[in-house]
Design brief:
The complex is a heterotrimer.
Chain A (H helix, E strand, L loop, with lengths): L16 H35 L3 H15 L3 H15 L1 H9 L2 H31 L1 H10 L4 H16 L1 H14 L11 H12 L2 H29 L14
Chain B lengths: L6 H39 L4 H16 L2 H20 L9 H28 L1 H9 L4 H31 L11 H12 L2 H30 L5 H4 L1
Chain C lengths: L3 E10 L2 E11 L4 E5 L6 H8 L7 E6 L2 E2 L7 H7 E4 L11 H11 L5 H14 L15 H13 L5 E5 L7 H16 L3 E5 L3 H7 L2 E6 L2 E7 H6 L6 H11 L2
The chains are: A mainly alpha, B mainly alpha, C alpha/beta.
The complex binds adenosine-5'-triphosphate and magnesium ion (MG).
Adenosine-5'-triphosphate (ATP) binds next to helix 1 of chain C.
Chain lengths: 244, 234, 246
C-alpha cells in the first residue's frame, strides 16, 4: 500500500490525485444538493396530490410513483441522458453544442431528483395518512380551505413525523449519485475508478472513496438530526426509522 | 431521429432473455443468501456479547453507508484476493464479474435484510418472549419456535419489497461489463445503434415486472392485515 | 327563523343509508342533546351541518344559509359554526395560543395582536390562560378539550356543535369540560351536543333528540324525555335504562 499516491500528479495535467478526488467529491455534493431540492419540491407536491380531494390528481400521482419506483435507477439515467434527446430534436440540438459536463450534471440532477421524489412522495403520503381524518376535519371545520389545511396543519406535522425516513432518503440520494458515473459525470466514484485504472492503486482509491462516502453519510445524518431536534415539538414523534 | 425499429428487439430477444435469466438468478440467490446471512447478523446484533453485537453493527453500518456501485467494485477487486488467501494459491484466481457479483450481493443485501429482520423480531414484542420463557423453553427454542416464525410473517411484505429493490439494483453489474438484462440490452444498443428502442424496452419490462410483483405484495398485505387488531392498524 | 334547521336530510355511504329523512330545528339560544346507540348516525348528522360530510337529499339551513347549495361559501359557513371533536384534534405542532390564533388570522383576517388578545381572553374563560405557551401534548385530556372549546369559540361562532366531547376523557376530567359547556349554555350559546352525559342533558338541555339507525326517533322537551316514561318509545327506553345503569 502506498498512500503517497494521492500526492502524485495525474499523467496529464498538474493536478494531484487527491485534488481530482476532491473535485469529484464537489460534483457529488453539488449533484446531491440540487437533486435533494428537486426531490423535496416534487415529492411534497405528489404526496399532496396523492392525498387530496381530487380523484384524478390522486391517480396521476400514484402512476408517477409507480413509474419512478419500478424502473432501475441506471435505466432512468440512460433514459434521461441517451434516450430523451433522441426523442426530442430541439433538446438534441442543444445537447450537441452544450458543455458535456453541464448536460451530464443536468441529466443527473433531474434523474436523481425525480427518482428520489417518488420515494419522498410515498413518505409524505404515509405521513399524512397517519394523521387520520380528524386533523383535516378539525382544520376544515374552522374554515381553513384545502390549501391552508395542508400548509398550516397537515404538512407541518407530517414533516416532523417523517424526518427519520427522510434522513435515510437523503443518505440514499448521496449514495445514488455514484450511479451518475454511468453517464460519465465526473463525480467521486468516476474519479475513484479513473484513479484505479490509471495508477493500479485500486485499494487506496477505493478506500479513500469509502471513507469519503462514510463521512458524507454521517454528516447528512447529523444535519438531518440537527434539523429534527430544532423543529421538534412535544408530542409529535418521528416514525420508527425504516429499514431502507 | 430515426423511426423506431421494433424489429431490433425481436431479433435480440433470445440474447435479452439470457440476460434476464442471469438477473433473476442473481436476484434469487442474493435474496435467499442475504436473508439467511441477514438473520444471522440480526441475531448477532441482538447478542448479549458486546463484541459480537458491535462487530455485526459495524459491518451493517459500513455496508449501508457506502454506494452499492462502490461495493460492487470493491468485491470485484477483493474476491480473487480473498480466494487466493483461502486457498493459499500462488496467483489470485480469475473469478470474473459474473461470479463475484453473487458474493457481492449476498454480503451487501445481508446488511439490509439484517435491519428488516431486526425490526421483525422487535415487532413480536417482549410479552411473547416472556411467555415462551415462562413455559420453560430455552433461549434457542424461544427464538426458533416462537419469535422467528412470527417475525418472518410480519416482515414478509418488507422482505419482498426489498427483493424487488434488489432485482432493480442487480442492473448495476452491467457497469462491470456483465451481461445481465441491462448489460445485454446495452450491448445490442451499442452494436446496432438502437439506444432508444433497447432502453425503452428494458424500462418497460422492469416496469411491468416490478409493478405486478409489488401489486401482489400489497394485496397479500391487505388480505393479511384483516386479522390485525384495529387499534394497531389505524 | 331557526338557527339550524334540517328538512328531510338523507345520506348514503354507497348503498348504506346513514341518515334517513332527518327533520328538526334548533332555535337561537337553544341547547339540544343528541343521544343514541353507536352507529346510529349522530356524528354524521352533526358533520353534515357544517358540511364536513356531504348529504344527498334534503336541506340544511344554518342561519338561513343553505349548506348543500354549491354556491355557498363553505369556509365562511364553517367559520361561523364551532365544532368540538371527541379526540380534541388540537394541532400538535402549534402552541395552545397558536392553535387559537390560526384560523382567526387565516380565515377571519385578524391581525396577530387582535387574535392573541381574543385568544387569551377565551383561555381565561376556560381557566387555561397560564397554559397558553404549552403544546397540546403537555396538557391533560380535560385541558386539551377545554382548549378545543376555546379554539372553536375564537371564531365567534353563532352556534356550537359537540361530538361526544367527553367520551375520550377520564371521569375526573369530564366535569371540568361539562362545566365549561354549561357556562356557555347559560350565556345563551346555541348548542347541539352529541353526548351520553345524561346528567348534563338533564341540567342544561332544552330538548333531547334520540336517534337510531339513521332516523330521529324522538325529539322532545327535556322534561318529557326524562320524567315521562310513558312518552318514550320502547327503543329509547331500552337505551336509557342501559346507560343510566352506570
Ligand atoms: N366514511 C364512512 N364510510 C362508510 N360508512 C361510514 C363512514 N363513516 C361512518 N360510517 C357508518 O355510518 C354509520 C353512522 O356512523 P356515525 O359515526 O355517524 O355513528 P355515531 O352515531 O356517531 O356512532 P358512535 O356513537 O360510535 O360515534 C355507522 O354505521 C358507520 O359505520
Ligand atoms: Mg360518533
Amino acid at each position: 500500500m502506498n498512500w503517497r499516491i494521492f500526492l502524485e500528479t495525474m499523467p496529464e495535467g498538474d493536478a494531484t490525485w487527491w485534488q481530482m478526488l476532491a473535485s469529484g467529491l464537489g460534483w457529488t455534493l453539488a449533484c446531491a444538493a440540487t437533486a435533494w431540492i428537486i426531490a423535496l419540491a416534487a415529492g411534497t407536491s405528489i404526496g399532496i396530490a396523492r392525498t387530496g380531494t381530487s380523484r384524478a390528481a390522486s391517480r396521476v400521482a400514484a402512476t408517477y410513483v409507480e413509474l419512478f419506483r419500478n424502473i432501475p435507477l441506471i435505466i432512468q439515467f440512460f433514459l434521461w441522458y441517451f434516450v430523451l434527446p433522441e426523442l426530442c430534436p430541439p433538446l438534441k440540438r442543444w445537447v450537441v453544442q452544450a458543455d458535456p459536463a453541464a448536460v451530464q450534471f443536468l441529466a443527473a440532477t433531474l434523474c436523481l431528483g425525480l427518482f428520489t421524489s417518488a420515494r419522498i412522495a410515498e413518505q409524505v403520503r404515509a405521513g399524512i395518512e397517519s394523521l387520520g381524518r380528524g386533523q383535516r376535519q378539525a382544520a376544515r371545520a374552522m374554515g381553513l380551505n384545502e390549501a391552508q389545511c395542508y400548509r398550516h396543519v397537515l404538512l407541518p406535522v407530517t414533516f416532523r413525523v417523517i424526518m427519520p425516513p427522510l434522513t435515510s432518503e437523503l443518505m440514499n440520494l448521496v449514495k445514488n449519485t455514484a450511479v451518475a458515473y454511468s453517464i460519465g459525470l465526473a463525480e467521486l466514484f468516476f474519479r475513484t475508478r479513473e484513479m484505479g485504472e490509471i495508477t493500479f492503486r485500486y485499494f487506496e482509491a477505493f478506500a479513500a472513496a469509502t471513507l469519503a462516502y462514510m463521512v458524507i453519510a454521517l454528516a447528512a445524518n447529523r444535519a438531518m438530526r440537527f434539523i429534527e431536534r430544532r423543529i421538534a415539538v412535544p408530542g409529535v414523534a418521528g416514525t420508527a426509522r425504516s429499514a431502507h | 431521429m430515426n423511426d423506431l425499429d421494433l424489429d431490433v428487439i425481436t431479433r435480440a430477444l433470445p440474447w435479452l432473455a439470457q440476460g434476464l435469466q442471469y438477473t433473476v438468478q442473481l436476484t434469487c440467490v442474493a435474496a435467499l443468501g442475504g436473508t439467511v446471512l441477514g438473520t444471522l447478523l440480526a441475531l448477532a446484533r441482538l447478542s448479549p456479547r458486546p463484541i459480537v453485537a458491535g462487530l455485526a453493527a459495524s459491518y451493517v453500518n459500513l455496508m449501508r453507508s457506502v454506494p452499492l456501485l462502490l461495493v460492487i467494485f470493491w468485491f470485484y477487486f477483493l474476491v480473487p484476493l480473498g480466494l487466493q488467501w483461502l486457498t493459499s494459491a500462488e496467483n489470485p484466481p480469475r473469478v470474473g464479474a459474473e461470479r463475484s457479483a453473487y458474493v457481492t450481493f449476498i454480503l451487501f443485501e445481508a446488511a439490509y435484510f439484517c435491519e428488516i429482520v431486526r425490526a421483525g423480531i422487535a415487532s413480536v414484542g417482549a410479552g411473547q418472549q416472556a411467555a415462551a420463557r415462562a413455559l420453560g423453553l430455552d433461549q434457542a427454542q424461544v427464538l426458533v419456535h416462537v419469535i422467528l416464525p412470527q417475525a418472518f410473517r410480519n416482515m414478509l411484505p418488507v422482505l419482498l419489497t426489498q427483493a424487488i429493490i434488489l432485482f432493480q439494483d442487480v442492473s448495476l453489474v452491467s457497469l462491470l461489463n456483465v451481461t445481465d438484462f441491462v448489460g445485454a440490452a446495452g450491448k445490442i444498443a451499442q452494436r446496432d445503434g438502437r439506444v432508444v428502442e433497447m432502453y425503452l424496452f428494458v424500462a418497460l419490462v422492469y416496469l411491468v415486472l416490478c409493478s405486478m410483483t409489488s401489486a401482489l405484495v400489497r394485496r397479500w398485505q391487505r388480505t393479511h392485515s384483516i386479522g390485525q387488531h384495529p387499534e394497531t392498524a389505524r | 327563523m331557526s338557527m339550524i334547521s334540517l328538512e328531510a336530510v338523507s345520506k348514503w355511504y354507497d348503498s348504506f343509508k346513514v341518515l334517513d329523512a332527518c327533520t328538526t330545528a334548533i332555535e337561537r339560544g337553544e341547547v339540544v342533546v343528541i343521544c343514541g346507540p353507536s352507529g346510529s348516525g349522530k356524528s354524521t348528522l352533526i358533520k353534515c351541518i357544517n358540511a364536513l360530510e356531504p348529504f344527498q337529499q334534503g336541506t340544511i339551513l344554518v342561519d338561513g344559509i343553505s349548506v348543500g347549495d354549491p354556491q355557498t361559501n363553505l369556509a365562511r359557513l364553517r367559520a361561523r359554526v364551532g365544532m368540538v371533536f371527541q379526540h380534541f384534534e388540537l394541532f400538535p405542532h402549534l402552541s395552545v395560543l397558536a392553535n387559537l390564533n390560526l384560523a382567526q388570522v387565516k380565515v377571519l383576517g385578524r391581525t396577530r395582536d387582535v387574535a392573541s388578545e381574543r385568544s387569551l381572553a377565551l383561555l381565561d374563560r376556560v381557566g387555561l390562560r397560564d397554559q397558553a405557551a404549552k403544546f397540546p401534548a403537555q396538557l391533560s385530556g380535560g385541558q386539551q378539550q377545554r382548549v378545543a372549546i376555546a379554539r372553536a369559540l375564537s371564531m365567534d361562532p353563532i352556534a356550537m356543535l359537540f361530538d361526544e366531547p367527553t367520551s375520550a376523557l377520564d371521569p375526573e376530567m369530564i366535569v371540568e369540560v361539562l362545566d365549561v359547556m354549561s357556562t356557555l349554555a347559560q350565556e345563551g350559546m346555541t348548542m347541539l351536543c352529541v353526548t351520553h352525559e345524561m346528567g348534563f342533558a338533564r341540567r342544561v338541555a332544552n330538548r333531547v333528540i334520540f336517534m337510531d339507525h339513521g332516523t330521529i326517533v324522538e325529539d322532545v322537551a327535556k322534561d318529557a324525555f326524562f320524567d315521562d316514561p310513558s312518552a318514550r318509545t320502547a327503543r329509547a327506553q331500552t337505551f336509557l335504562s342501559k346507560i343510566l345503569q352506570h
